[in-house]
Amino acid sequence: MAKVSLIGMSGSLRSGSFSNAILATLSEHFAERADLQVYDLAPIPLYNQDFEGEKRPSVVKQMLADIEAADGLVLCAPEFNHSIPGVLKNAIDWASRPAFASVLAYKPVAIMATSRGPLGGARCLEHMKVALDSCLSRVTLAREVIITAAETRIKDGRLVDETCLSFATGAVEALLKEIALFKDAG
Q1: pTM for the complete prediction?
Q2: Which residue segments constitute the domains of the chain, with CATH numbers given?
Q3: What residues contact residue 100 under an 8 Å CB cut-off, 6+ apart?
Q4: Do 114 and 151 form a contact (C-beta atoms < 8 A)?
């Protein structure tokens, strides 16, 4: 059976990012069943409607082609000011065009959030759902994954907290089931 192709996108550019650590952990955990590539969003320029269609920068065209070729996405982000970090929202904005016919339309997506505090992440998840719903993406139905007090749950660049890891892997398992159902129906 062919591996599922997944793109992981982090809402953090910081070295030592908790979101990157979670995506790296998931990539290793699912290595036998899925090829989860963590995508570098740093080179993606700010969205500008003047550069849509063929005027898109080449790095954006490549990102869109990679998203289109992937079976699904795994998005993980910290909550910034009660919302989605700009770097991830920017990628969603580029990928959302043309409206209702973009590479995100009907694409299965698993979402999760990180926080240093005990309560953060929920608003980021909610805003990701709203943004992805507007793109017609298929946000996977799974237990919400919010990794609070992330600095205590990640060691040496990997998610080591068993409870949080089970929630995160559960979301990716649900994503893989969604992808399989979609492929079987197609």
Answers
A1: 0.96
A2: 4-185 (3.40.50.360)
A3: 136
A4: no
